[in-house]
Amino acid sequence: MYTSLFDTFFSGSLIAPTRTVYVISDSQHKELKHNQRQEELDNIEEPKKRLEENYLTRIKFLD
Prior knowledge:
- The protein has about 60 residues and is an all-alpha fold.
- It has one domain.
- About 70% of the residues lie in helices and about 0% in strands.
- It is built from two helices and no strands.
- The chain has helices at about 5-10, 25-60.
- The protein starts with a helix and ends with a helix.
């Protein structure tokens, strides 16, 4: 059986696997972005609190 180069290329044997695409509503996208930003802020707040505590401890020690 004859297979053309075009058929071989688009059958997936010569190209990388395709990615899965998910379709979500605008409101879901907005909520997802909000949750991601909140998580980033939470990850920033924790080290900030520790740095502030360490700073206050150092000040007390130096006084």
